[in-house]
C-alpha cells in the first residue's frame, strides 16, 4: 500500500476540495463540482500565500472575496460557509509549522478582508446591475426590477447573517446601518446605536495611531486600516475587538461611506492576560516568579546614567528540616506567610519581591540612592521574620540568610548580579545564618574559582591532570630515609599546580575523593615496588615504606579493605610497605563499625598512622583501642623548637607524648621539621622519624631514590 503524499500542494488541494464541497450546493453555476474546485484552487493558493507572507496584506483577502462574487457565489450562505471553512481549515492545512496563535489571528483578519471584499464586490455588482437595468429599462423594466430585488436581498442576507459585527457610517461618523451581530456585541438596540457617532467611541487604551488612521480614511487618503480597539459598553464593561475599517467610494471614485468589521476578542484577551499572569507569577504565593523578576532586573540594570539598584537574595535557614518533620503542606503554608511578610516590606516605588523557587526569595529596589535603601530593605526583611509563624498549631521560628548586591546600573548582567547575590547569601549562611552580608568581589571570585574547580574535578582525573610528589621520612637516629609520604597535586590547565588544600575538600564534598584516593593509592604502591626493586641490593637501606593519606569519606567507603588488598596484590607488594594515615579528628568518637576496616588492614600488616595528633582533643586513653602503630605529631607542638632555647612547656608536652606512645608500642613521627636544631632536639626527646623542609621538600620519586642512595653510601 502506497502512503498518501502529504506535501504543501497536497494539503492545499485538500483544503480546496473541502471548500468546494461546502460551497458548491449553494452556488449558482453550470460547472460540475470538480470544475468548480479547479476555480477555487488558485483562490485557496492566494489565501495560503497571504497567511504565510512576511508582511500581512489584506488585499489578498478582499480579492478572494471579490472573486467569489465573480464565480457566482453570491448566495449569502456561500459567504457564510466560506468563512466557516477558512476559519476551520486554512491554518490546519496551510499553516505549516508557524506560530499557531499568530496564524489564527491572520486567518481572522483574512476573513474580515474577504467579507469586506465580498461586500464591496457584491455592492459594485449590484451597482453595475442597476446601471445595466437603467440602460435597458425600456426593454426589460420588469426583469431588471426583479434582478435588483434579488441582489439586494442577497446583500441583506449576507449583512445580517454574518458572524462578525458589521456597521456602515457616513464620512461624518453618523451610523447608518448595523447588523445583529454588532448590536449583540455592544448590548444595545439598533435605535440606540444609530444615535451614536463614530468619534464618540474613544477609549483610554486606544493606540496612538488609531484616530490618525481614521482621519486619513475619511479624507480618502487610505482605503482601509486594521487595529485592535477597545469600546465601552453601556454597562461600563469593556469590549475588545479586532477592527477593520474600509472606505467605500461611489461610481465616480469619491469617498462615500465607511464600513467597519468587528471581531469580539474580549474572551481571548482575558485568557491571554490570565496566561501571562500565570507565566510570570508563582502559583503558591502569588509573588512574581523568576521570569518576571529577571524582566524587572534587566530593566533596572539597563536604566540610564545615575540610576542604581539594590538586590537582597534571601534563603530561609533550616527550611528543609520543617519540610521533613511537618510535611510539605505545612512548608507551603509557611512559605505563603513568609511571602506575605516580605510583600509588606517592599511597598515603596521601585521595590518588588519575587520568589525564585523553593525557599529562595529576592527583593529589588531601584533609584538614585539604593546604597542606603537596600540596607534598610534587608533590615525590614530580617525584622519581618522575627515574629513566630503559626502552622498547624505550632509556633515556628523562621530565620533567613541574605546576600546583598548593590551598584550602578549598566555595569553587570542580570545573571552576574544574581550569581553574586547567591554567593553572598551562602557566605552569610556559612557564617551562622540569620544575618545579611554585602557582596565582596574578591569573595565572589574565590567562590567562582571553587565552583570551577569542583566542576572540573571529574574530568581532571580522566585527563590525567593529577600527579604525586613524595616527601622523605627520615629516621632521627641514623638519618636514613625510611620511606615517603605521597602528596597529590593537580596540574590545572589555567591555575597551574594546585596543592591538596585547594581541591581535597572539594573532592570530599562531591564524593570524587574515593576514585581519586584509589588512584593515589595505586600510583603510590606501584612506586613503592619500584623503590624496593631499586634498593634491593643496598644492604644499608631498609625497605622503603609509602605513606598514603585516607580521608574521612574513604574510611566509610565499603570497598576500602578490598580495594587496598587488590592494589597490593596487583603490584606484588607486601602490606608492610604501606602506611595509611588517618587524621585524629576523623577518629574522635569512632565506633567499632568505623574502626573495623582499619583493624582488618592492621591485622594484614598495613601500618596505620594517626595524623595531626594533638589537634583533635581526643582522650589519650582512646589510643589503646585504636588500631594504630604510629603517631604523627602535629607541627604546632614543635614550632617553638626552631629557636633556642625552646619553650619548656612544649618540650614537656612532646616528651610526655613520646613517652606515652612508646609505652603503647607506638612509633612517633614529627611533621614540619625545618632546622637542624629542631631535628636534634626531637632526636633527644626520643622521636623516631621526621619529615620537613630541613630534609627535603616534596618532589618527584627520583629525588627520594637519590637521597636513599646517598644515605646508604654515607
Automatic annotation (TrEMBL):
Residues 151-221 form the PAS domain. It holds the Pfam family EAL. Residues 307-441 form the GGDEF domain. CDD domains: EAL, GGDEF, PAS. InterPro entries: Biofilm_reg_signaling, EAL_dom, EAL_sf, GGDEF_dom, Nucleotide_cyclase, PAC, PAS, PAS-assoc_C. SMART domains: EAL, GGDEF, PAC, PAS. Residues 450-712 form the EAL domain. Residues 225-277 form the PAC domain. This is Putative signaling protein. It comes from Streptomyces afghaniensis 772.
